[in-house]
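User: I'm designing a mutation panel for Glycerol-3-phosphate dehydrogenase [NAD(P)+] and want to avoid disrupting the core. Could you give me a predicted structure to guide residue selection? Please restate the sequence first so the numbering is unambiguous.

Assistant: Good idea. Sequence first, for numbering, then the predicted structure tokens:
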Amino acid sequence: MKIAVLGAGSWGTVFAKVLADAGGDVTVWGRRAELVEAINDRHENPDYLPDVRLPDRLTATTEAAEALDGATYVMLAVPAQTLRPGLAEWRPLLPADAVLVSLMKGIELRTCKRMSEVIREVADVPEERVAVITGPNLAREIVMEQPSAAAVACVDEATAQKLQLACMTPYFRAYTNADVIGCELGGAVKNVIALAVGIAVGMGMGDNVSALLMTRGLAEIARLGAALGADQHTFAGLAGMGDLVATCSSPLSRNRTFGENLGRGMSLEEVVKATRQTAEGVKSCDAILELARRHHVEMPITEAIVAVMHGGLSPADAGRLLMSRTPKPERYGV
């Protein structure tokens, strides 16, 4: 089975390793010739995963046509906000029957569309040929072959099951899920909640605050999911609680680390400059809040993060704003 991975960043490279270890012949597409050369000649990605040896059956190319030729699965592992122009460029090269798989966790700005919706629109493919892989997947731990798992979501059960087998290894388990909406929302919104947790940690706050933000953050995810037709059970699983806990708790999380730096007193500009890889929550929080407003869903933590990231609100004032909200029952609907 030939598999194309479009994107040679940290997560794209790690998941390419998983696919190769599961028996696939994997070709990674990357823009930079020197990085592609390092993957092919030294079997490593020195920019994102130095000193990690990649499988021999994993190769790389700067030519998208070469990566896509004959691919059964096309894994999309680019920053969420670059998906649309990138996919428009690759569309003429896509194999006719390939399954397009989103490894991204974001919501598109302006359109407020999930990544699978962008894929279906730009590539003009039916939803049965679009899948999502998501879950508590910290790249550094997986590349060291520590046990991990993910949800493989597709509306077509047979497609999900075949993709599940394509990425099963002794250290990586995949579980199928028919709820594409819920899996994508869990993966996107948890990044915003991780920013909030990181800010609190950076400000020196303790575990009670982290637990509060994670729990109320999960409530925000579930409310938005209910409004969009997601299965509420999804948010108790790998794509919901699992991903949320990992991203909010781990120092390996880009979004939590970004928030920590803000909480310690760095300016937004300083943190952006110091951040080498994309923190999707910073980019997607605006679109998530707009999506919530379109569906009349209250998301106070997300609203506070948008105000910090794009409205000039200080982290301290954001905390005071959240703690001074009017009393409510723990469970309330849309």
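For picking mutation sites, this is relevant: The mean pLDDT is 96. The first strand starts at residue 2 and ends at 6.
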